[in-house]
User: Which sequence fits this backbone?
């Protein structure tokens, strides 16, 4: 050994060191967050589930009953066979007719609202169809159309 | 699952006033958005941090979002955002962790305002939306466009994309 060399130092043994993490346990949290109550409130916006009416009526439905159920959207679903297989969906549409009445120097604008029902069909081959109570008007004289307040909200 | 920190993002809110500068960082577990418009953010943290983020959401503040891959984006939830807060109790801990889910106005009216936001870019989910909205589930005919086994439960749509796009844009 050289005269200016240092003797090797023997590091004394120590107890085992325990590394501890005091932060949030992300692995556990990731699993728990999936069952958070907040998700139960938000989930309807991501995967809505509409209320559906099921069951058998006590008495046979006559035409008026069927009409009411259709316009209420309770008979939406899949119907038909083969090429006529289609999805049917009813909805309510508000039509607003605007007309102006001139009264001497004044100009009065009237908005007349009317609700109508329409049926949209999507066929198995990709065709779509919209059925309304009146023939589809030309664009220039078409009334303004907007979704019902419950849907637009 | 393990290594959750590799899947978590980071949401940062920085507010500078005349006297103070506040910087709040919380972990982000869920995010849905398109460019700067966020539709859903899910964050967790302590009570004060989550309270501050909630207030910032209602103030239409901008946030800095760091994705798990390191990408950074400025986001905002816009006007009329909604916040849902709940507590998550961790075993062995005195204080619960606060969980916040904030959603945009568009997501709040999802599927009813002429537009449907899907949580995943998945045709099965698009099919599920279509099935629910048209109440095919009621008829027992809701099946995804792929993996269809039974002919009885099969919707014979030859062009699923066309149908979905019609459904989404046709409302």
Assistant:
């Amino acid at each position: 050994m050289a005269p200016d060399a240092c003797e090797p130092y023997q590091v004394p043994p120590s107890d085992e060191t325990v590394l501890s993490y005091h932060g949030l346990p992300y692995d556990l949290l990731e699993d728990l967050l999936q069952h958070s109550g907040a998700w139960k409130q938000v989930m309807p916006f991501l995967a809505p589930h509409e209320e559906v009416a099921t069951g058998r009526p006590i008495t046979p439905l006559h035409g008026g009953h069927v009409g009411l159920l259709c316009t209420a959207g309770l008979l939406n679903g899949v119907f038909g066979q083969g090429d006529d297989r289609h999805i049917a969906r009813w909805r309510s549409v508000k039509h607003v007719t605007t007309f102006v009445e001139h009264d001497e120097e004044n100009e009065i604008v009237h908005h007349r609202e009317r609700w109508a029902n329409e049926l949209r069909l999507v066929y198995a081959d990709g065709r779509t169809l919209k059925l309304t109570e009146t023939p589809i008007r030309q664009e220039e004289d078409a009334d303004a159309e907007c979704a019902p307040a419950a849907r637009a909200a | 699952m393990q290594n959750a920190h590799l899947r978590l993002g980071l949401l940062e809110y920085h507010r500078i006033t005349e006297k103070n500068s506040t910087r709040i960082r919380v972990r982000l577990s869920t995010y849905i958005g398109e460019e700067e418009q966020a539709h859903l953010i899910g964050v967790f943290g302590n009570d004060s941090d989550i309270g501050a983020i909630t207030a910032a959401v209602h103030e239409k503040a901008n946030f800095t979002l760091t994705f798990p891959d390191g990408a950074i984006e400025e986001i905002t939830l816009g006007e009329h955002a909604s916040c849902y807060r709940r507590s998550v109790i961790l075993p062995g801990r005195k204080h619960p962790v606060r969980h916040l889910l904030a959603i945009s106005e568009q997501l709040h009216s999802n599927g009813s305002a002429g537009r449907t936001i899907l949580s995943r870019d998945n045709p099965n989910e698009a099919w599920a939306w279509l099935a629910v909205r048209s109440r095919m589930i009621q008829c027992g005919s809701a099946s995804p466009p792929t993996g269809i086994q039974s002919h009885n439960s099969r919707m014979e749509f030859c062009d699923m994309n066309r149908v979905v796009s019609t459904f989404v844009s046709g409302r």
Notes: Residues 47-58 of chain B form the longest helix (12 residues). Chain B touches chain A through 54 residues (CB under 8 Å). Confidence is low (pLDDT under 50) at residues 137-171 of chain B.
